Amino acid sequence: MPCMRTQVRERSRDAHRHKLEEEVAAAAAVGAGGFAFHEHHEKKEAKEEEEESHGKKHHHLFGRDDRSRARVCIYN
């Protein structure tokens, strides 16, 4: 049986590794969520561009990138 000091050292090392694994998993989850959000908006913009090319036009007076303000749309 290993001495007490060795057991403490091993537990400390295991706890540190576990903490790092949790941080990596959290970062991966945040990254995956951001990527999904980005893909959703790219798909949405592609759909809007396709609709505009087929005659269904939206004219956003405040711009598409200004998400903080209310939008006023004029439909043709």
From TrEMBL:
Native organism: Lotus japonicus (Lotus corniculatus var. japonicus)
Domain of life: Eukaryota
Pfam family, one: ABA_WDS
InterPro entries: ABA_WDS
Similarity-based family: Belongs to the abscisic acid and water stress-induced protein family.
Stretches for region Disordered: 40-63
Name of the molecule in the record: Uncharacterized protein
